[in-house]
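Support request from a user on the community tier.

User writes: "When I paste my structure tokens into the form, the page sometimes reloads and wipes my input. The last time it worked, I copied everything first. Here is what I submitted, just in case something in the input itself triggers the reload:"
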């Protein structure tokens, strides 16, 4: 089943996460998104990318019910693939704009942080790295991306609190670059992507690499240890008890 839809229009490719009601992330979604991003990197006719979700969620984050039955070894392999995905997205040579159509939670927020810009709908939608609220930690890479965008003090507040931020609150923090309406979300994100795509592509890619390579180097240096710690905490008795309470309603 295809969970990532692709549409090309006048040099802008739109990738849409489409997996049930909440676009929960699993191995298939990660593999398909990575594949499509690699295809678009090689496509000379594509100058920029918009990443969005279907329905009322950008992404719920990890498909927690699915992962309950997996061994720690299997889950570790998935987490490694997921963190490799956001590192690749973070350093993707083409402009990538996240069009946050709804709730953008945990792993979904990490994908959004890996993009060059984030445009989010106003209203009920929330954005959060809320892992601490159910007894989980995060990854070295996600903390580095968060610090890159909003600085250390604000990153600590976001991660320690596990707060769910509205688009306006996220804009004030620097988590989101623009707030818009449902109807104008994709047009706004496309305009943003087109504006970045209008820059000389080799220069944009070079400057992006100069800005982000030191961040990626630090992510890579610390990521393996953080994954092991994440999995240890995820499989601890207290965290598993909290995870068992989480359900995904697809109806």
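"...and here is what came back when it finally went through:"
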């Amino acid at each position: 089943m295809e969970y990532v839809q692709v549409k090309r229009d006048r040099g802008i490719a739109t990738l849409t996460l489409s997996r049930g009601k909440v676009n929960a992330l699993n191995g298939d979604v990660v593999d398909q998104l990575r594949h499509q991003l690699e295809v678009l990197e090689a496509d000379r006719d594509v100058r920029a990318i918009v990443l969005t979700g279907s329905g009322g969620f950008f992404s719920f984050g990890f498909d927690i019910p699915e992962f309950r039955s997996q061994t720690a070894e299997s889950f570790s392999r998935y987490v490694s693939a997921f963190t490799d995905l956001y590192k690749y997205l973070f350093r993707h040579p083409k402009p990538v704009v996240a069009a946050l159509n709804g709730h953008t939670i945990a792993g979904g927020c990490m994908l959004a942080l890996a993009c060059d810009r984030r445009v989010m709908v106003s209203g009920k939608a929330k954005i959060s790295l809320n892992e601490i609220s159910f007894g989980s930690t995060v990854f070295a890479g996600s903390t580095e991306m968060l610090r890159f965008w909003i600085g250390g003090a604000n990153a600590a507040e976001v991660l320690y609190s596990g707060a769910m931020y509205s688009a306006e609150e996220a804009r004030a923090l620097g988590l989101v670059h623009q707030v818009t309406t449902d109807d104008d979300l994709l047009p706004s994100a496309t305009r943003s992507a087109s504006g970045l795509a209008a820059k000389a592509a080799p220069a944009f890619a070079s400057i992006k690499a100069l800005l982000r390579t030191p961040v990626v180097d630090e992510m890579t240096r610390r990521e393996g240890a953080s994954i092991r710690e994440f999995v240890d905490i995820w499989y601890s008795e207290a965290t598993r008890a909290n995870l068992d309470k989480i359900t995904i309603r697809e109806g």
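Agent notes: The reload is a front-end session timeout and is unrelated to the input. DSSP finds nine helices and ten strands in the chain. The chain has a mean pLDDT of 96. Escalated to web team.
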